[in-house]
Amino acid sequence: MKGRIIALCAAGMMLGSAGAQADTVDIATLKCADLAELSAEDLAFVITWIDGYLGGRAEDTRFDTDRASNNIDAAVAACKQDDQQSVLSVIKDAEQQNSN
User: Fold this and answer.
1) Residues 25-54: pLDDT tens digits?
2) Which of 2, 4, 41, 81 has the most CB atoms less than 10 A away?
3) pLDDT tens, 59-68?
4) d(CA 92, CA 63)
5) Which residues pair with 7 in a beta bridge?
6) DSSP state letters, the chain
7) What's the start-to-end Cα distance of the chain, in Å?
């Protein structure tokens, strides 16, 4: 799983910089259902952005692939239950559950 996250993020960063887009996404309004419409590159950016955002809010400068993997797994499970939930909210909830 670690390798998959790192590869997904790296590919997204490399591909995204090669073909910069003018699209703007408000992560706060992004719903689980919206993830199905994202390309792999955009999904990698969203995951990386959310991890960085939450780390910044917590003043945590570490990138922990195990934590990120656990958070993603928990968020996917929550999204499967209700695809109208906010992606940011389900990942925040997963982060809180996994930190306890």
Assistant:
1) 788 999 999 988 888 888 878 888 888 898
2) 41
3) 988 888 888 8
4) 15
5) none
6) -HHHHHHHHHHHHHHHHHT-------GGG-BGGGGGGS-HHHHHHHHHHHHHHHHHHTT-----HHHHHHHHHHHHHHHHH-TTSBHHHHHHHHHHHHH-
7) 21
| Two tokens, residue 5 | 């996250």
How far lies 39's CA from each of 4, 19, 53, 81, 86, in Å?
A: 16, 13, 21, 22, 18
User: How many domains does the chain contain in total?
Assistant: 1
CA-CA distance, 96 to 13, in Å (whole number)? 27
Please report, for the domain that includes residue 41, its CATH number.
Answer: 1.10.890.10
Q: Which tens digits make up the pLDDT trace of 53-92?
A: 988 998 988 888 888 888 888 888 899 999 999 999 999 9
> Which tops the pLDDT comparison, 5 or 16?
5
* Residue 71 structure tokens: 């958070």
Tell me which residue range forms the domain holding 17.
Answer: 2-99
